[in-house]
Write a structure and sequence with these properties.
This protein has 250 residues and is mainly α. Among the domains are: 69 residues; 96 residues, no CATH class. It is built from seven helices and two strands; from the N terminus they run H-H-H-H-E-E-H-H-H. It has a two-stranded antiparallel ribbon with strand order 1-2. It is elongated and about 150 Å long. The mean pLDDT is 84.
Length: 250
C-alpha cells in the first residue's frame, strides 16, 4: 500500500507539471517519512490497546471479586433474614405509633399557633401601652424633678405663712387639696360658691391640721412613696393634674 501510494503521488506530480508547469517533488525521503509516521501511529495504537487490555483485565478481576463478595453477602443476608423480619415488624409498629404521635403533635401545634398568635397580639398591645407609658413618663419626669426641687426649697417659715392664711388664694387651696389627697386626708363638704344647690369637697381644714407640724409636713412630702400610689388616689388626683396641664397651656 505504501509503495502504491508513493508511486501514485509521483505520477500525479508529473501530470501536475505537464498541466500547470509547476513542480511538486516526490523523493525517497518522503517515502521514509511516511513509514516513520506509520510507525508512530502504530506505536500509539499498540500502547492504547495494551492499556485497554489491562483496564479490561482489571475490570474482569473486580467483577469476579464482586461476585465472590455477593455470594458472601447472600449467605449473611440469609442468616440475618429472621432479624430483618422482626425489625420490619417493629418498624411497622413504630410507624403506627409515629403516625398517632404526629396527629397529636399537629393538634398541639395548632393550639400552640393560636396561643402564639394571642401572645403576639398581647405583646403588641403591651408594647403599645409601654410606649405610651414611656411617653407620658418622659413628660412627667421633668415635672417630678421640678416638684422635688421645689419641695427641697420649702422651709418651716413657708409652712407657717400658709398656715396663717385666713382666706388663702385658690391656687394654695388647690395645691394643699392635692397634698391631702395624696396623704389620704378626708375633706369636708361645703357650699359651692358657684352653685347654691351644690356642695363640694373642701380640704383646707385638713390642710391646716397637716400644716400644724411643719417639720412632719416637710418630712411627709420628701419621704412620700410615689412609686406605690393606689388607684383610688390616682383617680382623685387626675382632675388636679389635668387642671395644671390646662393652666400651663393657657
Amino acid at each position: 500500500m505504501f509503495v502504491f501510494i508513493h508511486q501514485s503521488v509521483e505520477q500525479s506530480a508529473k501530470r501536475y507539471l505537464e498541466d500547470l508547469r509547476r513542480y511538486c517533488y516526490v523523493t525517497p525521503t518522503s517515502y521514509l517519512e511516511l513509514l516513520g509516521i506509520f510507525q508512530i501511529i502504530l506505536d500509539e495504537k499498540m500502547t492504547f490497546l495494551v492499556a485497554s487490555v489491562r483496564r479490561l483485565d482489571g475490570g474482569l478481576k473486580k467483577i469476579d471479586d464482586a461476585e465472590k463478595l455477593v455470594d458472601v453477602l447472600k449467605e449473611e443476608l440469609a442468616d440475618k433474614m429472621p432479624v430483618l423480619i422482626t425489625t420490619q415488624k417493629e418498624v411497622s409498629e413504630f410507624m403506627v405509633q409515629i403516625t398517632g404521635d404526629k396527629e397529636e403533635a399537629e393538634v398541639i401545634a395548632a393550639e400552640a399557633s393560636v396561643v402564639e398568635a394571642d401572645a403576639s397580639e398581647k405583646k403588641a398591645t403591651a408594647e403599645g401601652i409601654a410606649g405610651r407609658a414611656k411617653g407620658k413618663l418622659d413628660k412627667a419626669l421633668p415635672a417630678l424633678y421640678s416638684a422635688l426641687a421645689n419641695v427641697d426649697k420649702l422651709d418651716k417659715k413657708d409652712i407657717q405663712e400658709m398656715k396663717a392664711l385666713a382666706n388663702p388664694p385658690n391656687r394654695v387651696k388647690r395645691v394643699m387639696a392635692a397634698v391631702c389627697i395624696y396623704m389620704g386626708d378626708k375633706p369636708i363638704k361645703v357650699q359651692d360658691p358657684n352653685d347654691a344647690k351644690k356642695k363640694i369637697d373642701d380640704y383646707w381644714k385638713a390642710s391646716v391640721a397637716r400644716l400644724a407640724d411643719a417639720k412632719a409636713f416637710l418630712n411627709g412630702l420628701k419621704g412620700y412613696d410615689k412609686d406605690n400610689i393606689s388607684e383610688i388616689i390616682i383617680k382623685k388626683i387626675t382632675p388636679f393634674v389635668e387642671e395644671k396641664i390646662w393652666m400651663q397651656k393657657k
